[in-house]
Amino acid sequence: MEINYSTTANHLGSSAVREILKVTQGKNIISLAGGLPAEDLFPLQAVSNAYSRVLSADSSVLQYGLTEGFTPLRDKIAERLTKQGIPVTAAEMILTTGSQQAIDLLCKIMIDPGDTVLVEAPTYLAALQVLGSYRADIQTVENDEQGMLPDDLEDKLRRLRPKLLYAVPTFNNPSGATWSKERREQTVELCRRYGVLILEDNPYGEITFDEDKELYPLSLAAIDRSYGGDYCVVYTGTFSKIVAPALRSGWIVGPSELIKVIAKAKQAADLHSSTIDQRALDELLQQFDIEKHIRVISREYRSRMKLLSAELTSRAWEGAHFLEPRGGMFLWLTLSADINAADLLPLAVNHGVAFVPGEVFYSAQPLKNTMRLNFTHTPPQLMPMAVQRLDQALTMYKESLNLSH
């Protein structure tokens, strides 16, 4: 039978990252592709103990729960965010099934087909997928490693009257870049002036490579709330990168009236996120020193990033360059202009290494000589071999270019 799909379904795209993971799974391939944290750093015993305690204490952990999420857990997250400069209450927050669902729910209640949404370039692939599924008109604001360029941002705010601005200003996925304090302040000021909502996606912000937190600029949400009055920044975060992805525990923070509408959308989607996962996470935060754990994984990820950086530098590929990120999980590599990373990928997989071609992180006019490299999941002892395999694939690719000419 021929299935007559909806227009929305026909606009759904698959994730290039997930497709690459399918190709590499179960094979002798070192994957620098997925945005995966290090499994050897998961707090396995602490998580196991938390689940054991909640299961033995109260059978209500297996019951339905509030759409907004387990209140004690929301209170704890609100307390952590307040310490990070984002004063918030549980009433301004809803717990979601990972921050990915938070992006989807906000777009569901905000975006009609044809509505303009502003993004940076490159930006998070799965956010582009969500925006595409709601048939948004995605427009790129010119930017550099310091953030969005204020003149171009104001021009697009004035001309295009966008519904939303989406950004990952701290340890961007995929580029690893962090916006400067000045650009953050300018972006918030302009969006407040033009009445445009910002979705600040911050899944990586706590993975910092400088232990002095004062060296990092405030979040857009913190800057926004310093004005007082109405807020223009909606903020989303997750425990996926600092505890474990399988918990699927994220949150979205915004004006209480917006949260009420998001709650209606979430009720229609899944009623609520997993009660037992929320209760276990709440227990974990009571019994486990998560701040110490974040410091441990941050130090290890910094070490792995430095190792990847050194290996790439030693290759001295003509025309290649990158900036070391100050945190997060990704390094953005730009190759010489004659390289198409998407064409390079099959050769790399044949040589036993995988990456994500940079072109998938653009809504338009992609830079095809770029790639995203994840440094957190690969064991340190395999990093030199990963770069060696990439070097071999690149050599073969360049030889094929010479033959074709």
From TrEMBL:
Segments traversing the membrane: none
Claim: Phosphoprotein is one of the keywords in the record: no
Organism domain of life: Bacteria
Signal sequence region: none
Any one GO molecular-function label of the UniProt entry: transaminase activity
Keywords: Aminotransferase, Pyridoxal phosphate, Transferase
InterPro entries: Aminotransferase_I/II_large, Class-I_PLP-dep_aminotransf, PyrdxlP-dep_Trfase, PyrdxlP-dep_Trfase_major, PyrdxlP-dep_Trfase_small
Record domain Aminotransferase class I/classII large: where: 29-389
Gene Ontology terms: biological process: alpha-amino acid metabolic process
Cofactor: pyridoxal 5'-phosphate
Pfam families in UniProt: Aminotran_1_2
Quaternary structure and partners: Homodimer.
The protein, known as: Aminotransferase class I/II-fold pyridoxal phosphate-dependent enzyme
Organism in which the protein naturally occurs: Paenibacillus monticola
